[in-house]
Amino acid sequence: MLDMTALSAHHGSDAAARRSRSRRNAQLRLQAYGLIAIGLAGAALVTLLWSVFSKTALVLTESYIALPVEVPGDIDPDNIRAANFNGIYRSALYTAFPQVSGRRDRRALTEIVSSAVLFELQERVEAEPALIGQTFTYPMLASDDVDLYLKGVFGRLSSEAHSGDLSMTVDGADIQLFSTANDFNAVLAFTKDALLDRAAFLRGQAALQDTGRRVTEGQAVELEAGEQRDALEARIAGYIAQRDRLLAEADDLDDRADAPGGTEAMGTDIPSLLIHVSGGWIRATEVSADRLRGRILVPPEGTETTGPENWKMYVNDRPEETRKVSDAQIAYIEDLRKRGAISTVFNWRFLTSSDSREAELAGIWGAAVGSFWTMLVTFCLAFPIGVLSAIYLEEFAPKNRFTDFIEVNINNLAAVPSIVFGLLGLAVFLNFFGVPRSAPLAGGIVLALMTLPTIIIASRAAIKAVPPSIRDAALGVGASKLQTSFHHVIPLAMPGILTGTIIGMAQALGETAPLIMIGMVAFIVDVPGGVTDPATALPVQVFRWSDFPERAFEAKTSAAICVLLLFLVIMNALAIFLRRRFERRW
Amino acid sequence: MTNQRLNEGKMSNRQIKFDANHVDVYYATTHAIKDVSVDILDKTVTAFIGPSGCGKSTFLRCLNRMNDTIDICRVEGEIKLDGDDIYDRGVDPVQLRAKVGMVFQKPNPFPKSIYDNVAYGPRIHGLVGSKSDIDDVVEQSLRRAALWEEVKDRLDAPGTGLSGGQQQRLCIARAIATAPEVLLMDEPCSALDPIATAQIEELIDELRNNYSVVIVTHSMQQAARVSQKTAFFHLGTLVEYDDTNRIFTNPTDQRTHDYITGRFG
After folding, report:
1. Do B171 and A473 touch (CB under 8 A)?
2. How many CB pairs under 8 A join A and B?
3. What is the pLDDT of residues A284-298, one digit of tens each?
4. What is the 3-state secondary structure (H, E, C) of A290-338?
């Protein structure tokens, strides 16, 4: 038989020490895994928030270009809408840049302001007919691309050092500039770097031609001499000629890049060089060490030679072809900026306006109101139905197979993908019951279905958590089952019920898929006035904007996500507050 | 106190309040109470004693049909309150519980004010209408539960904020506020210290003047101190039921003798 007292000696042995060490290490390892997991989760969250918030920063402000606008005196005050406000705001821009002529240049000029200026100016004059016949300074909303340029998305102009006197010779739309010093050397250098890049690209193309030659030669070897083989030989010769031509061109480019001095063209695929002289703007198209040839964007007022302090040289590191703001538009904007015509204000428009095809006009108010109506319908349906179901199942329903079956199914419903609820809504509510499409009513019903299981499960848990002694106490003084439930159990379960409801509602607020199924994904400019008006919702707005190619919409997407997150945070904070406020101890 | 009891008149002269005949209780297939017949007298304290799990609490809960809330519980036999079968189809258990109040083992005041705790019963039964009448009922109930002096200045304070003994007295006040005829107490002092226990026992003695009190207790001293009649349960059967002084001085059954002398249980 085992001698138990002898076993006590084991506790002091080396084996025991090893065991306890390995147990301790196992515990430390587990703690380390836990810390790593938390670290990864935290990093993911920080990355998400950073990417959203950094883009949202672009939406915080909007830009205005304030210019004197002349409203002609011949407008009929009773029919202001008939007036040509399109011409009015355009001529304000043409007056600001009288040198700009030609269809394309004028079009580039008018595109720096939003097309909505037309309507806003019209509304302004309608509100204040005294402006007819007057000239007043009117802030025009900048277009989305100009706004983004002002925020630095399309590169910033950096000033280049220079020391020479500049003389000019106008040559039609072009201009020749000479500097007494080698001021353009730095620009020439990066222009030549572009040649090297081009040469590398050509060598890549040459390598492709060579691959074609090799493959074709392999095919030719297997063929007898004849017509087919001759055709292949001809193709091989073509490949070789093409390859050699590309290589020669690349070598030529390399030589040009390596050789000192020379003259190089400045295309739209390399950083732009802008010269500001005598109130004019010139975009360089060809550069050498001490001279350059350029296109006149805004003509200079005089062509006399000026000292180094009177002319400026700017480089935008983003090549023109990679941005939506042309060099000419940059010249107009910078000129306006120097005149102090550009102002930046907090972007209330984003919060107060509805969706628009113009990025600078698009706001989330319509979507927020749509979400509000949808949530209202969801709450009015899901809360009473969910809570009453929970009360019945928990307090009154007999415990039998049937209620077990219902319980299992409610739990399963909570795991059904939301798009399935969307399909159900489409088939049953829209097609069968004829609920209006795209309306918050339909969205609310579908989201209520989706939220119901969450509310029922949370409410049942809350009701179950009320101690039985409270029920006994109420029944003991002769309260009926109904009185016990409504006077004692439900008030005590209310914090839990409300928490579950708010979390379910928050889930519904962020739901997109079912709303897409029932058509709440439409482009809707009007703010919905009721539950049957066509509407969209915040998450759907995020989804729609994320699909647009414009950079400005990318920023708007992040901003809309921020607003959605804000609502979710508020709802969760409310849930925590309610839980704390109404929590009772017994 | 026990000596005083000995001097009191014969119990059998008093009116019978509860008349239980051949009561069997089953929890699913478990036979918890086996053929128990007992007469509980009016204006008397009746104690149920016995080892744990002997069925005394189950039987007590049969008297106001609290067992109805347990789905698997089934009661057979006949229990008459003032001659009417309380398990009759026509009897509303809610009405019955208004007449037969109950105090539980653990103090379980509602998480409401002291006032609302006591006023709840009268309100839901519509015993009194006006505010002043309810005030009156609350005050009287708290006075009879010997709690009025301690709480009269803070009737709006939550009942759950009182001490354990005060909470239990509040529960008693709540039970008597509905003006019951019988008061059932399921080990009302098991969670209390000796001082609170003494207060509650004194209170039970007071209540005897108006109510029939049935108390389940694990303490034989308590049974001897407060009751006039004692029933000894063992393994679901009623072994012996007699005057308290008789049970504690001269039991007829050997099991009763063994239990009260501490041989088992």
Report:
1. yes
2. 69
3. 998 888 888 998 888
4. CEEEEEEEECCCCCCCECHHHEEEEEECCCHHHCCCCHHHHHHHHHHHH
